[in-house]
Write a structure and sequence with these properties.
It contains 5 helices and 12 strands. The chain is globular, with a radius of gyration of 17 Å. About 45% of the residues are buried.
């Protein structure tokens, strides 16, 4: 394992306060920058040293999970988007995505953006940014390998039993994205989640959304819309 992986997962240390257990429910690891959200009701097996280095950088993320949460609000601006969803547009960091109408914005120390359902706490979406010297998500390995590493070491707590269901790759405007579906089972709940990761602008982007397993059939189409909407532009 090389130095490149280790460098990705050592963001600045953050002093944390407030409510515990947010990370195990939301699937979070830290680095925070503010963004604006834009609402609308309109329609609209063997590995090379480089591979091992990439895995080390991913593994190190697990030590940076932020388990605290507090509430906040931001200004809103009108824009056209898909009916039943609101648009988040971060011009500084160059990403956009949709989230279901009715979810509320919360601030999680170390996260760039989080929205969640206040009644169903496992229903949320979070975006995390970490600096990286890599140029492409494929530099870390194939989709299944990257997904397994992130799920086991970053997106679920060590006490949860996890299962990767599917991992795929697609390209948009010359950028490679990995999308994966997984289950994280805790003693008192099971979360069914979707994540999408990409590298651009010198950053490792991760968006994760999910719901309680008991509500998966009801929520899966909306959550897939969230993941499919995630796009990164050059800044």
């Amino acid at each position: 394992m090389g130095m490149a992986m280790a460098s990705l997962v050592k963001p600045p240390s953050i002093h944390l306060t407030c409510l515990p257990n947010a990370s195990t429910q939301l699937g979070l690891y830290p680095h925070s920058v503010r963004s604006e959200h834009v609402p609308s009701n309109s329609n609209s097996n063997a590995t090379s040293p480089q591979d091992r280095g990439g895995r080390r950088q991913l593994l190190s993320m697990g030590a940076t999970i932020a388990p605290w949460i507090f509430f906040s609000s931001t200004g809103t601006f009108a824009a056209e988007t898909k009916k039943g969803f609101l648009l988040v547009k971060d011009n500084k960091d160059g990403y956009t995505f949709l989230y279901p109408f009715g979810w509320q914005e919360v601030v999680v120390q170390g996260q760039d953006k989080v929205f969640k359902d206040v009644i169903e706490p496992l229903e949320s979406v979070s975006v995390n940014l970490l600096p990286t010297g890599k140029q492409d998500i494929r530099d870390f390995g194939p989709p299944q390998e990257v997904a397994e590493t992130l799920i086991q070491k970053v997106l679920a707590s060590p006490t949860q039993k996890t299962k990767l269901i599917e991992a795929t790759e697609h390209n948009v405007d010359g950028k490679a994205y990995y999308t994966f579906e997984f289950i994280a089972k805790a003693p008192n709940y099971t979360r069914h989640a979707l994540s999408i990761v990409c590298i651009a602008n010198g950053k490792f982007y991760t968006l994760t959304t999910g719901a309680n397993e008991r509500r998966w059939e009801k929520m899966k189409d909306r959550l897939k819309t969230v993941v499919d909407s995630f796009q990164i532009s050059n800044v």
